[in-house]
Amino acid sequence: MPPSKFAHSSQWLSGRYLCFAEREDIALYKAQGLGVCAIARKIGRSASTISRELRRNAATRSGGFEYRATTAQWHADRAARRPKAAKLAQNDALRQYVEDRLSGQVSAPNGNIIAGPDVPWTKRRSVRRQHRRWATAWSPEQIAHRLPLDFPDDPMMRISHEAIYQSLFIQGRGALRRELVACLRSGRALRVPRARRKGKGKPFVSDQIMISERPAEADDRAVPGHWEDDLILGLKSSAIGTLVERSTRFTLLLHLPPMPGHGTGPRKKNGPALAGHGAEAVRDAITKSIQSLPKHLCKSLTWDQGAEMARHEQLKEHTGIQVFFCDPQSPWQRGSNENTNGLLRQYFPKGTDLSAHDESTLDAVAYTLNNRPRKTLGWKTPAEALEEVLT
Asked: What pLDDT is recorded for position 370?
């Protein structure tokens, strides 16, 4: 709310803020040579409040940090004026940086642009089960924390993730185009909580090695080469396999196309898995991806107890990689993979046919995801973290 001196109808400032009388006392005690804690005890305020007041509202025209009550009150009144111009509206270079990382196009490693589905902007929050716009899609938090790494010597290239969200959600801010909300992972134009349904997977009973027997080096993520795996499902029994390395969060996507004969006739009970994500298809896809990796990056796989891993013993024989299984209904034991699956829903929403994407498209999406900075990696990208491991 604006201070009372700027609007006659507004209320007086609450006791949360320093008043002019308190600033006069701070100036007197400061002139007497008292420290921050002593001043705070005398006026009944927190020491951090006094320290922040002396730093923010000091008079600096003379070249020092002299504190005067009138000057400090002028600084406080100027900072309290509303509305303020958005930082993104004032800094063109910063706004362009944010827009490029929100809406940049998805490209393959060779530089070819992958357009993705054509999704027009309807000025509404996106519906859950429909195609989503494909973009570089860095989150506002990723953008805000990547700026100090890309511009370490430019203090003007700084912004908080909350300021980016406000520029997208509040039309009055006017800094970013409103249609860029389609590039957010949630796809929502408003902050609306949404409950998530928890589905139960199919039971899988076999001689297996449980996650409790997985080596300790996989639990603390100190040694690379331990992977978490799962499937993301779509319409018409379509699926895409996901492999996430626990240490670097590097992601591989498995192409699982439908087999010949799928969808051409009535489904045969207890017949072969023709949808493309049966046990044999998943085994072959993992074998193909694992064999392209260095040997020291293929130590273990962790999967849930889904029927698609019924051929895990053959997978171990073909690749030499050890397979572990999570406890029933315990997705948090594959936290990195579950988090990555949520990121991938930006490109492969629920309720869409995933078999429409070919292998080159999946490689492009994996390349884009591996070049997005991650908070857990100190805002490095998974590709940068993997490169450090390999070198």
From this structure: 94
